[in-house]
Amino acid sequence: MQHRILPSVIAVALACAGSSAMAAKPAKAVAKPAPVAQAAADFELAHNLGPVGEEQLQAVVDRFNKETGGNLKLTRLEKGEKPAGLNLVRRYDMTEVLTQPKNFVPLHEMMAKAGQPLKLTDLSADLKSGVVDGKGRLVALPLVYSTPVLFYNKNAFRKAKLDPEQPPKTWFEMQGVLDKLQDAGYACPYTSSWPVWVHIDNVSAVSGVPAVNEKGVLTFNGLPQVKHIAMMATWTKANYFKLFGRRNEASAKFHDGECAMITTDSREHIDFRDAKGVELGVAPMPYHDDVYGGRQSSLADGASLWAGAGKSAAEYKQAAKFVSFLLSPEMQVELVRVYGGLPLTTAARSAARSKLLQDGDKTLEVAYASMKGRGTSHVPHVADADPVRIIANEELEAVWADKKPAKAALDTAVTRGNAVLAAKAVLKKAQPF
């Protein structure tokens, strides 16, 4: 860096060179220290990922700091605490955002104030659920979104003398597949992670009867949903279907080869790539072919990046810089490779699709075909509202345990859930602003 030479020092030097008298009595010049470049402001990215997710996120942060001179630090996103400058909020933690809107600022507003307006005219329509306001502006970044798909073990299909390239398309067809898998020795022919997200939100959407109406009222106790949950109850009794938890506990059972099929988030193809003994197959989540209108689109949801309120201009400038970094085509492809989420832009989608297809991975193709360009939803998802999701899980588990019939359980879940929503109206919103 070139240092600016002070005018007084120049004057003294010239005077000394041209006057012997002044040389005898030189003027004393006090050198001022050169200006020091200021380091980037510290800012934090809060998260509540597990050890593997944290390690992956740290790699992204390290790259950002190295390439941009940033000073981003990871911290834990603790329930009830004020949010950090940036916050990675997963689907099952959205209640904190919805009930505390004053703790956050819209992403588009933060970016504009930092002098880095968002340019996302080609943002996929599938990825706007819960992160776009009434004017179409981004209030958060849909960083790792996905949609439910059916993963299956092709080796298990071969063992059961099933065509590994012909996964079941409908739930009716799937029952015959599960019977053959069981006969082939699989004690767990089928399982599912995220039961409320998959079997209430998405089964409802794919059947064309949304789980929540336009007014934010729960409506997932209609005939298609009751028939589906009743079918799952019979599969549980027949040991075709096994549930291992309310989140992604079942994914480990598929990864280890214990279960032959699983419905879960499309992003998990990244986690299943190294599964021993599993040759990964992927297909759209099955649908009920007796529902009027045929198969409709599945939904997209996942982890999104939210800006915390009350931070300094310097912090927001660094936060905006990080958002722009994440949106670069190179980083978009990298995020798909590392996390398996759906690419945000057309260019990133094209690049990621090319790379994955080279590796024989068709998950992105299947996920986008499943959403049909309509993966977004202007109403909240049942899985996003923590107290409502807990109620739905309780009632579903009563069905799986043969303690309640499907109709009674779903009626109770809707009644209890709507009572919660009536008391906490903010949970009826898809996003807080």
From TrEMBL:
InterPro entries: Bact_solute-bd_prot1, SBP, SBP_1_CS. Keywords: Periplasm, Signal, Transport. It holds the Pfam family SBP_bac_8. Belongs to the bacterial solute-binding protein 1 family. This is sn-glycerol-3-phosphate-binding periplasmic protein UgpB. The complex is composed of two ATP-binding proteins (UgpC), two transmembrane proteins (UgpA and UgpE) and a solute-binding protein (UgpB). Residues 1-23 form the signal peptide. It is found in: Periplasm. It comes from the Bacteria.
